[in-house]
VTT domain-containing protein (Pseudonocardia saturnea), 202 residues
Amino acid sequence: MTDPTTLIGYVLDSPWLLPLITLAVICDGPLPLVPSEPVLFSATASALADGDGLRIVALFGAALVGSLLGDALLYGAGRSSNRVVGGVRRDDGLGAWVRRHLHRRPIVALVATRLIPGGRLASVTAAGRVRLPLRAFVPATLASSLVWSSWMTGIGVIVGPFTHGDPLLSLLAGFLLALLVGGAAGIARRVVRHRRRAIASV
């Protein structure tokens, strides 16, 4: 039986790693329950342990490309059919906030929601649905993709010294950090929503 550490190490050292990262980032837009963050964390931590700065830059580039391509697909889905993305339309909460700010501050709207679980799906498809012009969408998605890619590879660099390049530890750390980030964002959303309701009831 193949040792899990050996298998994970093979994937992280595989020449297919960069296309895999790109594909994973594309897919976690419409499928936010299957996040790409743990794979990116693990690969970055492994590259840091190997002292391979060029690989870290390449991972950042792969994540950025995947983010831009995935956003383009979500934007197109939002423009082409409400039925495709009808489930992300909301009258309150995140969806309403995004729609209020998209035309006035598209960069703020897309950047602010990018690290929130489900925020990418809600904000980018909303941009397509409200027919946000490409001249406004392109710089907004570029800014949000740069912020997200920098944040994720940066966390991988932080994790690296603690995992010492161990593939299994890197992957476990990646999953743990993804859960922590998602949990913190979810708590922050609930706190803001509670405060908003408290103010409205006064």
About this structure: The radius of gyration is 18 Å.
